[in-house]
Amino acid sequence: MTASYRLSEIASQLGGRVLGDAEVRISQIASLETAQPGQISFLTNSRYRSQLANTRAGAVILAEDDAESTGLPRIVSDNPYAYFARVSALLNPLPEATPGIHPGAFIGANTKIDATVSIAATAVIGEGATIGANSVIGEGCSVGANVVIGCRARLYPRVVIYHDCMIGDDLIAHSGVVIGADGFGIAMDQGRWIKIPQIGRVVIGNDVEIGANTTIDRGALDDTVIEDGVKLDNQIQVAHNVRIGAHTAIAGCVGIAGSTSIGCYCRIGGSAGILGHLNIADHVEIAAFTLIGKSIHEAGSYAAIFPFSTSAEWRKNTVHLRHLDELVRRVKALEQEFETIKQKP
Amino acid sequence: MTASYRLSEIASQLGGRVLGDAEVRISQIASLETAQPGQISFLTNSRYRSQLANTRAGAVILAEDDAESTGLPRIVSDNPYAYFARVSALLNPLPEATPGIHPGAFIGANTKIDATVSIAATAVIGEGATIGANSVIGEGCSVGANVVIGCRARLYPRVVIYHDCMIGDDLIAHSGVVIGADGFGIAMDQGRWIKIPQIGRVVIGNDVEIGANTTIDRGALDDTVIEDGVKLDNQIQVAHNVRIGAHTAIAGCVGIAGSTSIGCYCRIGGSAGILGHLNIADHVEIAAFTLIGKSIHEAGSYAAIFPFSTSAEWRKNTVHLRHLDELVRRVKALEQEFETIKQKP
Amino acid sequence: MTASYRLSEIASQLGGRVLGDAEVRISQIASLETAQPGQISFLTNSRYRSQLANTRAGAVILAEDDAESTGLPRIVSDNPYAYFARVSALLNPLPEATPGIHPGAFIGANTKIDATVSIAATAVIGEGATIGANSVIGEGCSVGANVVIGCRARLYPRVVIYHDCMIGDDLIAHSGVVIGADGFGIAMDQGRWIKIPQIGRVVIGNDVEIGANTTIDRGALDDTVIEDGVKLDNQIQVAHNVRIGAHTAIAGCVGIAGSTSIGCYCRIGGSAGILGHLNIADHVEIAAFTLIGKSIHEAGSYAAIFPFSTSAEWRKNTVHLRHLDELVRRVKALEQEFETIKQKP
């Protein structure tokens, strides 16, 4: 059961201006289409005003411009989407984890684990590791030797952090995340690959979230760095010595090759890729499925998506891509011959 | 050691018409090329009839049209490939798991676990979870609070299912699968990302198989839904609030962005992607490496693959893609000038 | 603390010619830019000679051609990059694992585990498994029934190896690796997918490294094979019955579909893909993000990358791809009409 709040209580905690019945009780958040009485919904785009007319929601969050679009009890905010996020967090607090170390966990020597930390059965904490206040370590997590984790971290089951990595406050790491595995460093010698020891660490700032099965490799010589506020979706691969700037958000299945540096406030679409040793400026947006093969020095939006069509259309058009250079030559030849004709008397 | 069956016994269990010696004993399945006496092989494509002549197989499964292509003992079926699958299942039953909870497993309060369930050492079952008859939970699995799993589920080692997810009968989930991690929901507010709580669930129908390290995120408000008979290969990412229709099969490394709805009986090739908030009709086939950026309303086959060539050829042709618009204008200009010339007396 | 070595001691262990003060003590490796006294750096590309002038390194590894480019103590090698890898391994030995089975591990019946093997808490070793001398099995690893692992294997936490797989000496498998899960084998029958049992194994040679969260499926009938010296980065998907030839190196996020055979000494870039049932010759290089859809019979370099641009440029140019066939026809028409004109008297 989630708790319930009066609209006035919500606004007194989170700000915003209440219009209509401030005493209505709200216990959950929902979309305009599915909301029931007792639930609060939100309008973030005036295009959906028509849904507002039919919603059964008990209250709505909306922007100043939409303030008079409904007679329902409502909270007016200058950022309704962020307000919705805050209301949802208020109504859906994470389950409290009981502080303490489960007897089925394994704790190495010389660890510094705050008394408020919760460690689940089958978690393994390595020698010399430090875990800050109110952190929660799920079952099956492996925290390597000398790892430092800040306060309020939440490691879902089966997260692995290799030795010596440093992590700030408020980390959320979902199941299957691997932080600090060896980067892909090999040198060819007389027909065999020799492994290059990966002696850097992964260093992660505050307020970072990492999605399920995402991997972040440790540095080869220096560190791999994830700055404050970075948000990573699932199944992302971050190679050794990458730096991801503060507040950059990266969608699922992206691969970032070694030693690339990405700026702050970038947004990278799903399954995109960035080659190694590049620099990407701040405020760059990269479309889904786009490979970035050169550094980007200007903020802006970049893309490289091959447009889809029916397979028949695709075959018909695509066959010419292998002859595009020839086509360009043919056009040039026509232009030249044409010029000759025009000059004829 | 696998058991052995007479050809007649196989046909009496699985149907089909036996030709030739029905008493031959069969203990394993193999390809035409590698089969040994005592093994049964199959011909699913008349193109490979030549292999039939040389096979050492003790018996063969084939279609009506090929029934007289060999003198070997044989079973005639209208779907030899499916028949082969059934024979293989008969000859290679899964190892029986001993019912019971290993003393090295950790079981939360108020669970409902059928007496026939097998739970391995180091598995952790959350408070209030339900697990149906004859299910097998491998080592290191994490089943969250209030999860419901149907009958005959097989969770290979290290599967994680987050709290409250609902799963039908006959699930197969391979190692590293993560079901119900938070979707990628964030709202920008004054220069920082705020997390949007993901309060939906993952709801999975009957007879679903999920490949190793595939991730299926829980819904933001409503549920993420995987319908009956869906087959997912490895390393697939299914974002929050996606719906995958019944009997759709998806190959490895595909990414499906949030709130997209995919129809029934679709087939999606490896490393393909589908952007968010789209609708894909039933019976759509999507080629490998294809990004779908708009809804598809018609059944059929779709593609967007950039054709490969030697790097030298690729460089020569691809450089023109950045000037394609200019090329089209040049052709248009030629056409117009040409028209002018033709109109000259 | 890493140990320290005199330059002369390093050369006597690893070869190479010492120039300058052979008595200088070296305790770590670093890049030219960040190296401190007491650290050794390396020059692998004459382009970076300028960095050599300013380095604070105590010593340098370089090639014969660069031997006189600095007065620093130095080791001359015919392969400075490989030499650097060897020095780094000398200075950064893996932490010794204590031999023995942790009481929190679970060991099945009839296993053959060498007395020098180290098995961590929460690891589970299946019935009949064999593990060779000096191997280290991390916490949460799952080694299936009858698996054979050679000597000096290092399984980082949470590696899963399914039953019956065979692995040579010197395997390194990073966290989240899944070896031997079922391949994606299904047959459509009367509107439902039937599972095809995957009865092959994964067979891995000597000296193989596998990156975090990479998956290698077991064969359908025959085995999936990874030959000696193969190096796989993170998040790679290797489907059933694939063969990867010796000393091939594959970057992150690559997907290889079923029954494809890749030659020796290939190099495959990140997020590339190879369709099923193909043959790739030895010494083939495949660019990042490239889908290979046909067999490659010649060594060489291949690519299929769509070039990125600003989204505005991309839109302007890409719209024509759907009309490329029409454009080619228009050019052809112009050429023909032009020919007619030229033939006019």
Brief synopsis:
3 copies of one chain form a homotrimer. By secondary structure, chain A is an alpha/beta fold. Chain A has 5 helices and 40 strands.
Please supply descriptive tags for the structure shown above.
alpha/beta; 10-stranded parallel β-sheet; 5 helices; 40 strands; homotrimer; 11-stranded parallel β-sheet; 345 residues
Instruction: Enumerate the spans of chain A where pLDDT stays under 50 for 5 or more consecutive residues.
Output: none
Q: Mean of residue pLDDT of chain A?
A: 96
Strand line-up in the sheet with most strands of chain A: 8-11-14-17-20-25-28-31-34-37-39
Biggest interchain interface, per-side counts: A-B, 74 and 71 residues
Beta content of chain A comes to 25-35%
- How large is the radius of gyration of chain A? 27 Å
Which class best fits the helix and strand makeup of chain A?
alpha/beta
In which range does the helix fraction of chain A lie? 10-25%
Largest sheet of chain A: 11 strands, parallel
Output the number of helix runs of chain A: 5
Instruction: Give me the count of strands of chain A.
Output: 40
Give the oligomer, counting copies of the same chain as homo and different chains as hetero: homotrimer
